[in-house]
Amino acid sequence: SGAQNLLFTAISFARANAPDREKPFLFIESRITPPAGHRVGKNGLRAIGMVEGTDYVHMAGDEFLRADLSTSLYSALVTASDYGGVLTQVELDALNARKEAIAEFVNQGGGIVALAESGKGARLTPNGGHFEWLPIEIAGNVANVAPYRVTAYGNEVLGLVDGDVASPSHNYFEHSAGDPLTPVSLVSPTCT
Questions:
Q1: ∠71-164-77 over CA atoms, to 5°?
Q2: Pick from 40, 46, 50: which is nearest to 15 by CA?
Q3: Are 125 and 89 in contact (CB under 8 A)?
Q4: What radius of gyration, in Å, describes the C-alpha atoms of the chain?
Q5: Cβ burial 42-51 (10 Å sphere, 16+ → b, else e)
Q6: DSSP 8-state code for residue 162
Q7: pTM of the full predicted structure?
Q8: What stretches of 119-191 adopt beta strand conformation (E)?
Q9: 76-98: buried (b, 16+ CB within 10 Å) or exposed (e) per residue?
């Protein structure tokens, strides 16, 4: 239930400032049969009540390369994970190839939900390029350093609790003062 709450909250937050937040979001994930240890990410969307064709449009990498990425069509861009979902190198390469279009989409008010990219698991993204498509510079790590704790912002503004982030997706981003990101969860300060 924590993962469902986190996913629903992330997508709702990403769509909140879109010119038309009722537009479907664009979901990027391969259409391959998931390898052992992976799941179809759309199942997570279904689990939180999202309906394909109404709430979201699913595209694989080759489709995304040709897609009209506009806030007149979509409220947000959501990517599957390569660690537990089925984001492959094809989708990651397509996202990276469209970095400028993604930045324009964000500048028009579209939101982004970027799930884990690590190259681990079944190694669906072995050539890397993780998170390069994001329109901001980030410093990310693929080490899992749980436990995470929800920040005051994550709790008070988004309504998240520690249990929602108790099973992190094998990525975390370094955060320091002045970063453009507002952390929702952080590594517990009691960790060594």
A1: 15
A2: 50
A3: yes
A4: 16
A5: bebbeebebe
A6: G
A7: 0.85
A8: 140-141, 148-150, 172-173, 185-187
A9: bbbbbbbbbbbbbbbbbbbbbeb
For residue 116, what are the contacts with CB-CB under 8 A and spacing of at least 6?
81, 82, 83, 84, 85, 169, 170, 171
86-122 pLDDT tens trace? 999 999 999 999 999 999 999 999 999 988 888 888 8
**Token digits of residue 192:** 């060594």
Please give the Cα distance from 36 to 84 (Å, whole number).
9
Strand order in the sheet with 25-28: 56-59, 25-28, 76-79, 111-114
CA atoms 87, 93, 95, 99: torsion sign: positive
Q: Two tokens at 61?
A: 């990498």
What are 50-67's pLDDT values in tens digits?
999 999 999 999 999 999
Structure-token match 């390898």, residue found: 35
Residues written for the chain: 192
